[in-house]
Amino acid sequence: MVDILFSICPPSVLCQILVGLSRTTILFIVTSGLSLILGVLRIPNVAHGSLYMIGAFMAFSVSKLFGGGATGFWMALLIAPLGVAILSLIIERGIFSHLYEREHLMLLLLTFSFALLFGDLVKMIWGGEYRTVAMPEAFKGPIPLKNFPIPIYNMFLLIIGPLVAIGLWFLTNKTKIGKISRAAAVDREMVGAVGVNVSWVFAFVFVIGCFLAGLGGALIAPIVNVTLGMDHTLIMEAFLIVIMGGLGNVWGALTGALIFGLTQSLGILVWPQFGIVFPYVAVVIVLLFRPTGLLKSTW
Amino acid sequence: MAKRIHERAIWLILALFVLLLILPLVLARFYVYLLALILVTGLLTTSLNMVLGYGGIYQFHHAVFYGVGAYGAAIMIAKLGYSPWLGFIVGPLLAALLSLVMGAICIRLSKLYFGMLQISLGSLVWAVVYRWYTFTGGDDGIHGVSLPALIATPKGSYYFTLLITSACLFVMYLIVKSPFGSTLQGIRDNPVRSEAVGVNVKLQQLVALVIAGFFAGVAGALFVVVDNSAFPDMLFWTLSLEILIMCLLGGWFTFLGPMLGAAILVALRTFASTFTEYWTMIQGIILMLVIIFLPEGVLGYLHAKIRQLEGAILPGDK
């Protein structure tokens, strides 16, 4: 069966696409969190990239604490996102919750101030060198299929991605708190009027969103150099994906991440020097035809 | 009463200008460089305020025009070998042209969506500049741009910058006070009403964007004069947000507020960097405090205070 696939498109392109898709997974996980926060709280969370970076660094520390290897990895995956979630709860309750009535521009700049703060905080705590997180032995190396040298870890990511998507869908569509959040995204005043404590709904959504950012960071830690500056590149891409997909729409985040990841991978294949320009072109094209994004936004 | 503040302000500005003229004669070379940098950044910030504060347009990626102005001048001089004076004209014109193109594409969208498309287009320009190694020097940028002897020295570049900046600020002030400026503010406050009165809202905003882009380009060209270089970070979104912060810090409903914000932030950054490597964190904290306690910015706060005091001392004027 694999041979039939190979006759349609050569293994290298397919490999590149699959690797691109696995990167897409991380983008999707982080961006869905951003989209959630944007949709329900109407806050463009520029600090999202910083939380992603903190997630990666925390994964490093936790993994080192548990001696690296498989235990370290799984513990990091469990604890780092939780750590980020707790941090986000603190800043939400401490500062954000008092400033919700301000203009969007102000809220954006406020989250930017946190991004600046976190950037240096990471530098203070972890220093400026590259860090690496060890991968469990089982995930190292390519899958044992001839002509198909995809790293096992990337396949792992390809499985995690849809799981997170399904989990999110379940959370927002089938649980009570999820449905209330969606209602609050559309009309927060009405939700408050029917007796729901909107403030705690916001806190919940914010924490979930930031948890996803931390999860993305923890997931990508084993395959990249964990370093300062991760936040800057990621937040730009994340915002472009959210804009492309439709503000507040988690499925839009998925679509946007797919387009972004694929255009980047294929772009690098086709024109290596300007590979990274392709996704930006894609975003511009999408916005020219659908300025509010591909899918319906909650704004 | 407003006239009194106004008259006093003019004397203050003149005094400041004289001070700026004399300072380089007594200050060390580094401080002259710093002052020049403050002037350039102030010009850039004021150009942003033209559309942000006076026009209400969410120009989230203003740094693009700054970078294009700088690269335009630098490439003309360093890579293509033209006369520097020509380079200084081409840079801002290129920025204005880009502003026209980007503005025309984005203007049909309102507020937030305008900002989003603008960021996307701006990022695209950044990505191209960043990767086009042969033409723009890519990650390294362009260095060692040769300048005419008159403006190549620290003092020379400073006075040139002071001259151009003052001229530009003056022109921008005239624009803001003109009927065009008033209409722009009217559009900011109530676009529907403006349209009803017969104003071509989109056209006015587009013109404002081109003006802002042009002056940002001038600031970029001036940066080349001061620093002899251009680099991709000038087009990165973090700079755009920094300019926004400066506008906010100084007071974005006033004319000189952004300039003050730029001065404060550039000066703070230089001095804080000598004490600690965590300037970014300090910047973040300052921003947070400004947003929470001083949403009108420093100048706005001072304005309000002065008005309060005047109101208390001279009740008859009410």
Describe this entry's structure for a reader.
- The complex is a heterodimer of chains A (299) and B (318).
- Helices cover 73% and strands 0% of the residues of chain A.
- Chain A is mainly α.
- Chain A has a domain at 26-230.
- The radius of gyration of chain A is 19 Å and the shape is globular.
- The mean pLDDT of chain A is 86.
- With 318 residues, chain B is mostly helical.
- Chain B has a single domain, classed as ABC transporter involved in vitamin B12 uptake, BtuC (Orthogonal Bundle), CATH 1.10.3470.
- The interface between A and B is large, with 38 and 39 residues.
User: In total, how many domains does the architecture of chain B comprise?
Assistant: 1
Q: Could you tell me the radius of gyration of chain A in angstroms?
A: 19 Å
**How many strand units of chain B?**
0
What is the rounded distance between the termini of chain A?
45 Å
Mean pLDDT of chain B: 85
Helix and strand string of chain A, N-terminal first? Answer: HHHHHHHHHHHH
Low-pLDDT residue intervals, each spanning 5 or more residues of chain B: none
Largest interface: A-B, 38 and 39 residues
